[in-house]
Amino acid sequence: MAYQKPTLFGLAYASRPFHEVDGDQAFETLCRETGPALNLRFPDRNGHAQALLKWLNNWGCRIAAKSPDTLFQSWSEWFRQWKPRLPPADLALIDAGERDFEVLADAYGTLLPIYGLGPTGASKLLLAVRPASAMAWDAEIQKRFAPAGDRAGYGQMLARSKAEAEDLAADAARCGVTDWRSIADEIGRSGLTLPKLLDEYHWVTITRRHQIPAVGDLQRWMAWHAEATA
């Protein structure tokens, strides 16, 4: 199935099936439990690290926390080293530059060897730490967008996702949404960042192979609805 680049309509449509399977709005729950920002500096089993582990496993990472203290300590060491180097928390993907992507890709690369993460877990952890600028992927999305799940491949993912975000912003402006920052509000997903919305779109259309309806199909369905309610 050919990949369709996200439009405002496609993003809004994909958010519906994603919301149905995202139990108790899992990412929103993670943000609520770790707000105002995820902090892995202190490896507390009952704090942010535990909430992150639960979210990662809810989305298929299957990290067997046989020694959670050791696992959380490795996250803490990574966080202490990389948090000062990462792009600012409020830097949006659409505003990020090549240097920002280099740093995010480097941070992703150092996450890969950590027990239980791999490409999928590393990208999701990075999204949790920098939800405005980092991107998540799973194996299917990675195969679609990059030749490998390594540091270089993740850098390619970031650049491609920024291009998608720019195209999405242009399409939203065409639809009357002049400020891309209000896209989440417009589609009923207030509080989510563009990287998170794009991740949902990728999961629905690539991982789950769900096709966004064509305009002709929608028009025909609406005609049926009008006839049924006449």
Summary tags:
230 residues; 0% strand
The number of strands is: 0
- Biggest sheet, in brief? none
Structural class: mainly alpha
Global shape: globular
Mean pLDDT: 92
Extract low-pLDDT stretches.
none
- Tell me the radius of gyration: 18 Å
Number of domains: 1
Treating each run of at least 4 consecutive H or I residues as one helix, how many helices? Answer: 11
Which percent range fits the helix content? 55-70%
Give me the strand/helix succession. Answer: HHHHHHHHHHH
End-to-end Cα distance, whole Å, is 37 Å
β-sheet strand percentage: under 5%
Describe the structure.
Helices cover about 60% and strands about 0% of the residues. It has eleven helices and no strands. The chain starts with 7 loop residues before the first helix and ends with a helix. The model has no long low-confidence stretch (mean pLDDT about 90).
Question: What are the SSEs and their pairings?
Answer:
Elements (H helix, E strand, L loop, with lengths): L7 H14 L4 H9 L13 H11 L9 H15 L15 H14 L6 H12 L9 H7 L5 H24 L8 H4 L7 H14 L7 H15 L1
Helix pairs in contact: 1-10, 2-3, 5-6, 5-8, 7-10
Concise structural overview:
60% of the residues lie in helices and 0% in strands. With 230 residues, the chain is an all-alpha fold.
